[in-house]
Automatic annotation (TrEMBL):
It is found in: Membrane. This is Pinopsin. GO terms for biological process: phototransduction. One of its GO terms (molecular function) is G protein-coupled receptor activity. Keywords: Chromophore, G-protein coupled receptor, Membrane, Photoreceptor protein, Receptor, Retinal protein, Sensory transduction, Transducer, Transmembrane, Transmembrane helix. PROSITE patterns: G_PROTEIN_RECEP_F1_1 (PS00237), G_PROTEIN_RECEP_F1_2 (PS50262), OPSIN (PS00238). It comes from Charadrius vociferus.
Length: 189
């Protein structure tokens, strides 16, 4: 899930840079693509590995059928990790996405009357596809994040195992939606 969100943040920034002319679109050079992939996975690993080394812990969640961070522990070790996870793996990437697409939409509006070429049309389709991916990601992960924060900071037992099943399954299925969205919104497939 974290790799998915970070990848969307990197993609949004790349779209912003390409469409605003900060970098040149080069379909033959894969260095920038590989850098984005390595950055996404490294950042995600850096934030998912700490429970393996003692900062918080992993354990069964909900009815015990899935594994996740220990949301129910109230000690400072777990609480600090959950706060950092929420800020650095949901809020900051989401801010990058909103900033990049906000600036990109402003740029598209400015040039939409001037340049109606095929390149811009294709870029706008890609932008729509990525925005749909981001919205689907948030629809999948915000309920899970909300339940996790309530379990962490709310009264003990406020979130029952049964109440956490749907957000958990929805969140963990989010990686399936991006390829489906890509297939339906990409005319080249």
């Amino acid at each position: 899930g974290i790799v998915s969100l970070i990848s969307l943040a990197v993609l949004s920034y790349e779209r912003y840079c390409t469409m605003t002319g900060m970098t040149e679109a080069d379909t033959t050079n894969y260095r920038k693509i590989w850098t984005g992939i390595v950055l996404s996975w490294t950042y995600s690993l850096a934030w998912t590995a700490p429970p393996l080394f003692g900062w918080s812990s992993y354990g069964p969640e909900g009815p015990g059928t899935t594994c996740s961070v220990n949301w129910h522990s109230k000690d400072i070790n777990n609480t600090s990790y959950i706060i950092c996870l929420f800020i650095f793996c949901l809020v900051i990437p989401f801010v990058v996405i909103v900033y990049s697409y906000g600036k990109l939409l402003c740029a598209i509006r400015q040039v939409s009357g001037i340049n109606k070429g095929m390149g811009r049309s294709r870029e706008q389709r890609v932008l729509i596809m990525v925005v749909v991916m981001v919205i689907c990601f948030l629809l999948c992960w915000l309920p899970y994040a909300t339940v996790a924060l309530i379990a962490t900071f709310g009264k003990p037992g406020l979130i029952t195992p049964a109440a956490s099943i749907i957000p958990s399954i929805l969140a963990k299925s989010s990686t399936v939606y991006n390829p489906i969205i890509y297939i339906f919104l990409n005319k080249q497939v």
